[in-house]
Amino acid sequence: xxxxxxxxxxxxxxxxxxxxxxxxxxxxxxxxxxxxxxxxxxxxxxxxxxxxxxxxxxxxxxxxxxxxxxxxxxxxxxxxxxxxxxxxxxxxxxxxxxxxxxxxxxxxxxxxxxxxxxxxxxxxxxxxxxxxxxxxxxxxxxxxxxxxxxxxxxxxxxxxxxxxxxxxxxxxxxxxxxxxxxxxxxxxxxxxxxxxxxxxxxxxxxxxxxxxxxxxxxxxxxxxxxxxxxxxxxxxxxxxxxxxxxxxxxxxxxxxxxxxxxxxxxxxxxxxxxxxxxx
Length: 279
Known about the structure:
Layout: H1 2-27, E1 37-43, E2 47-56, E3 64-74, E4 78-85, E5 92-94, E6 101-107, E7 119-125, E8 131-134, E9 140-141, E10 147-148, E11 154-155, E12 171-172, E13 177-179, E14 185-188, E15 191-194, E16 201-202, E17 207-209, E18 226-231, E19 233-235, H2 241-274
Antiparallel strand pairs: 1-4, 2-3, 5-19, 6-18, 7-8, 7-11, 7-15, 8-17, 9-10, 12-13, 13-14, 16-17
Helix pairs in contact: 1-2
Family: Belongs to the flagella basal body rod proteins family.
Subcellular location: Bacterial flagellum basal body
InterPro entries: Flag_bb_rod_N (IPR001444), Flagellar_basal_body_rod_CS (IPR019776), Flagellar_FlgE/F/G (IPR020013), Flg_bb/hook_C_dom (IPR010930), FlgE/F/G-like (IPR037925), LlgE_F_G-like_D1 (IPR053967)
């Protein structure tokens, strides 16, 4: 009976966690560059239950031989195995701001080991000097003229250096080259490539980091990697709001179903303790 409580509880915890992830997806449906999280729910291995019995052997001393009688398999519940971002390209929309840039995938190779498609990201410098990565090209100039993201992290060029401009009157072509108001090239936007983005650690605010803290390689010159940029545009979230709402209702109903089973177990336990135990 108590094992049933634990099994149902794992289902409720898994569905609650799934509901939280879907809710977060819907809350970021309008966040530039946001990648929706996908969940995978798996079951724990079943346990084979056996009962200890005995067989009496007709001897003078009444020898009893112990044996195991198979009762059957018992499900041990489920768990949320992992959460992975969906790296599909979001819709591109116009903003009219010269410091906004949309990163557009033209062609990225598939990782042989994992079977996943690679991904490209803008390069950012953290407060501690390490790099983070993002698909959100909603950039601006700070008080010193540095190109920064909404969190204030410095946007890096193709050589890993910060970029500083006198004003926002800049032009960025499809290759990432940046030109000032005199049409003189002053830099190239830094773009990194990850062969398997599922191994990246997703932080808040659309940022990603590598597991070991090492920098990703540059996307420029990578075999099979083709991309372009579009100034005064942003990549929108790839969240499908209608699908997320449907999945949210499904997860909620599954949570309710587990809750009903838990209540049934509770009533059975109440009878066993307060009524049958009194007889």
